[in-house]
Design goal:
Mean pLDDT: 75
Oligomer: single chain
Number of strands: 0
Radius of gyration: 21 Å
Structural class: mainly alpha
Low-confidence stretches: none
Shape: elongated
Length: 93
């Protein structure tokens, strides 16, 4: 088994076993889908009333992804910092 494969396998085990990984990925999906649904409901009145001039579907979709990306940034930070532990503190004299 090569060293590269061992490192990749170790990182994969770390990501799968950490609870924060699943929480952040779940938040990403929930924020993206939930906000997409809410913004779709909010903009639905514009399309139904014929006020298509004020409706921008690109804005609605990109706004939901922006909030979902915040959860992915938190996931990336936790994935990189998940294996490090703080050094034990020395007793003060």
């Amino acid at each position: 088994m090569s060293a590269t494969f061992s490192v990749i396998r170790g990182e994969w085990i770390k990501l799968v076993s950490l609870r924060s990984t699943w929480v952040c990925l779940g938040l990403t999906v929930a924020l993206s889908v939930g906000l997409g649904y809410l913004i779709g409901i909010a903009y639905g009145g514009y399309v139904a009333d014929g006020m298509v001039e004020g409706f921008d579907p690109l804005f609605a979709s990109s706004m939901t992804l922006t909030f979902g990306l915040l959860a992915l940034v938190a996931f990336a930070i936790l994935a990189m910092a998940g294996s490090t532990t703080p050094a034990p503190s020395r007793p003060r004299c």
